[in-house]
Fold:
Amino acid sequence: MDEKKAQWPLFEPSSDLAFKPVPLMLDQLLEKLHLTTPLNILVLAPHPDDFDAIAVTLRFFQQRGDTIHLAVLTNGASGVEDGFAGAHTDEEKTFLREAEQIASCRFFGLAPEHLRFLRLPLDDNGNPFLDDANRQRIRVCLQQSHADLVFMPHGNDSNITHQRTYALFRSVALEDKLSLWAVLNQDAKTQVMRTDLYTPFDEVSAQWKAQLLRLHASQHQRNLNMRGHGFDERVLAINRQAGAARDVAYAEVFELERFE
Ligand SMILES: [Zn+2]
Structure:
């Protein structure tokens, strides 16, 4: 970070002289936040597949030559339908979901040594414990990645594992007085959030992203069975809706939070 501290939200006067935050487009981010490059980026994915939900944004950084590390917090076994691809036990389902994430990271171009599965201990409902042991695992990821930006789903989400991922991160960031930006993405189950940043994208990128999302075959099939449309469409529908609000075909949207 530059000595010059960026304040958030960035404000600009509107016509009625009230002040309102203005969402940034992704390519304005580095300048507006006074970020020095190359950047270190950590993605805290509550489940295998949360990385892929923001793949167009992450590809922007990947193509610039920034360093991306992905930590997948939980095994995602509870998201696999019993018997899918012959998987019945938690161990078999874990193997399946991790294999899907490895395949999607290969397609994305993330080096295998930048992907790690934390397999955090889970409570009876399949959510990670909010305890010191899990905070310590997140602390190690933050320390090893020297992250300038940390991506994860927004904590205001009906999914408890998403809530707790943010809570674990936040307590470590505050306790260790880390200096970084949290970049909190909109997900299918996000309730309310502020849009500070958005990544517009076109149909060609949408097709690339759809291909990536379909590599999570267990999730693709589950969505087809439950909702009658695939995992790719589930995610792209949210991006399409976010894009329509900004007059672009698709957008991934984020809230920014500064930690000092
Ligand atoms: Zn998730």
